TrEMBL record:
Membrane-traversing stretches: none
Protein name as it appears in the record: MAGUK p55 subfamily member 4-like
Protein family (similarity comment): Belongs to the MAGUK family.
Domain SH3: 223-293
Ranges for domain PDZ: 135-216
UniProt source species: Sinocyclocheilus rhinocerous
């Protein structure tokens, strides 16, 4: 398998075959319209008692009729007559019949003329076993041809290995995967190495002529459209196994890819959305990517799992977010929870997505804010709710600590016993939970659902490991990452701000706090960016607030890519 046969297209999109038929049908409607327009004009002229010969003369010279005749020439005689008679049958102007007869006769004369180039007759002495050859001429410019070639090591024949969707070869409709390449610009290619053919192509200018023996049984493409979100990064130029790196398409975690061809089990063709080019690129299929990841994973020395490192507990201690294992003093593996750990990434290199528009009568989507501790997640959440508490609301957390005198159950917290808390944990009722000074705290799915059921937009802040619990068909979370600006910018904007320490005290920010926030933010983004629906850089508080408000509205009002499993749940989801 070899590099892309680089040539190209340019121009001359050689549309043909079925597409011609489509044009034909599409024009039927517009012709009918034009002819109806003719009737209207003729009706007006007849009413004005204009001489019939003059009318015919002016009609034949009218620019719109000229363009009509041009269109007519592209169509078959029978369909034109069908259109014309269709119009004549529906008109009730007997006076116009003779004029139209003249028009039709003019059309017949023109359409009988042969405008095709004169081709030499086929030689009579063609051998019986002569293979049907196709000669394909493509105009080269600096775009790639959009096809790859391969050499059959046994026979030495050269074949078109694949045709890239939307590339020149594909648009021409003349080259197909499986076609046998016989000549390029008059050079027989039998026995050549693919690189030698690439060289011939590289040194060719202008029109390139391919002589091919077309594949006899072209597979029918009956694949349905598939959209996926990339859960990993991929660079074809770092992948020695790709058949042609130049035909490959790089992508980053979180990119939305439209898979346009899955006919090859190993190499799919995809377009990155939003797409500026119609030309697809090669990407590894799910199974191939999983295999690659497994190989890579096994080839690396063992490291304790580091994906979920955050900068520690949120210092505000609204909710102490120790990790589950830590909270219960167990060494439970984070592979159970972390949506991006090595195992789950291996399981899901692509996530199937669909375009989803929130229905006004359905509960709102949950808004989940996340970011490094100290960046301002809670500040932004608080401000958003303050803007309109009738629309935005947080979820009331659960705790095992006793209520203080001013606290009311279900207002500040749901006060429950440790046994009740443990039961909720066992039943997976918590989005996240942790332990602080001997008391358990947690945000439950039900608390979020209560807010959503009341018709409000629920806004919570979570640690990244909780993403898995909120990216569900039930909550349909829209995840917004609050990203720190640079350390220098934080020094300016947080000059008068205070950070809440782990000991409930607040103090002015120090330079090392900013460095820690920046590092934690980078780490979080690196590991979880594929789950972020939106990113807000919290530089100026006011501007960040406006951005948050806009993003939250957009989450509810505009179509978004969401996991397909939310819309059509599968057995696994
Ligand atoms: N853009 C900003 N400009 C100035 N000060 C800010 C900005 N964003 C947040 N702050 C201030 O920074 C401090 C920390 O913010 P906040 O408590 O919201 O952090 P956090 O991300 O929720 O982290 P934690 O959960 O650890 O408290 C607060 O005093 C807040 O007012």
């Amino acid at each position: 398998m070899r590099p892309d046969v680089e040539t190209d297209p340019g121009s001359a999109p050689l549309e043909m075959g079925d597409k011609g038929m489509m044009l034909h049908i599409a024009n039927f409607g517009s012709l009918t319209q034009i002819l109806a327009h003719v009737i209207a004009e003729v009706r007006g002229s007849v009413n004005k008692d204009i001489n019939g010969a003059e009318l015919l003369y002016s009609l034949l010279n009218a620019p719109w009729l000229q363009s009509l005749l041009k269109k007519v020439l592209k169509l078959t005689t029978s369909s034109i007559q069908l259109v014309v008679w269709n119009v004549l049958l529906t008109t009730e102007i007997p006076e116009t019949t003779c004029i139209f007869q003249a028009l039709l006769s003019a059309h017949d004369t023109v359409s009988l003329r042969d405008y095709e180039p004169d081709l030499p007759p086929l030689p009579k002495d063609l051998p019986e076993d002569e293979e049907a050859m196709r000669i394909v001429c493509l105009v080269k410019n600096n775009q790639p041809l959009g096809a790859t070639i391969r050499r059959d090591d046994v026979t030495g024949e050269i074949y078109i290995a694949r045709v890239i969707h939307g590339g020149l070869a594909d648009r021409s409709g003349l080259l197909h995967a499986g076609d046998r390449l016989v000549e390029v610009n008059g050079h027989p290619v039998f026995g050549l190495e693919p690189e030698q053919i690439i060289q011939i192509l590289a040194h060719s200018h202008g029109t390139i002529m391919f002589k091919v023996v077309p594949i006899t049984d072209r597979p029918v493409n009956n694949q349905t459209m598939l959209y996926v979100r990339a859960m990993v990064d991929y660079n074809p130029h770092m992948d020695p196994s790709i058949p042609c790196a130049d035909a490959g398409m790089a992508f980053r975690k979180g990119d939305i890819l439209e898979i346009v061809d899955q006919s090859d089990t190993l190499w799919w063709q995809a377009v990155k959305l939003p797409s500026i080019s119609a030309c697809a690129g090669l990407i590894p299929s799910t199974s191939l990517l999983k295999r690659k990841q497994k190989e890579l994973w096994w080839s690396q020395p063992y490291h304790p799992h580091t994906c979920v490192k955050t900068s520690g507990f949120r210092r505000s201690l609204r909710l102490c977010r120790q990790r589950r294992g830590q909270a219960f003093g167990t060494s439970q593996s984070c592979t159970l929870r972390c949506p991006t750990n090595c195992y789950s990434s291996l399981a899901k290199p692509y996530e199937e997505v669909v375009r989803y528009q929130h229905h006004p009568e359905h509960p709102h989507r949950l808004i989940a804010l996340l970011g490094p501790s100290g960046v301002g997640v809670n500040e932004l959440r608080r401000r958003l709710i303050e803007i309109n508490p009738k629309v935005y609301q947080g979820a009331v957390p659960h705790t095992t600590r006793p209520p203080k005198c001013h606290e009311e159950s279900a207002r500040e917290y749901h006060f429950i016993s440790r046994e009740q808390f443990d039961t909720m944990v066992c039943n997976h009722r918590f989005i996240e939970f942790g332990e602080l000074r001997g008391h358990l705290y947690g945000t439950s799915v039900d608390a979020v659902k209560d807010v959503l059921a009341s018709g409000k937009i629920c806004v919570i802040d979570i640690e990244p490991y909780a993403l898995e619990s909120v990216r569900t068909a039930e909550l349909r979370a829209y995840a917004i990452f609050i990203k720190p600006p640079t350390v220098e910018q934080m020094k300016c904007t947080r000059m008068n701000s205070h950070i809440i320490t782990n000991y409930y005290t607040s103090r002015p920010f120090k330079d090392e706090d900013f460095q820690e926030i920046e590092d934690a933010g980078r780490n979080m983004e690196q590991h979880y960016c594929q789950f972020f629906d939106h990113v807000i850089v919290n530089d100026g508080l006011q501007a960040a607030c406006v951005q948050l408000l806009t993003a939250v509205r957009r989450a509810q009002d505009e179509p978004q890519w969401v996991p397909a499993a939310w819309i059509r749940p599968t057995d696994q989801s």
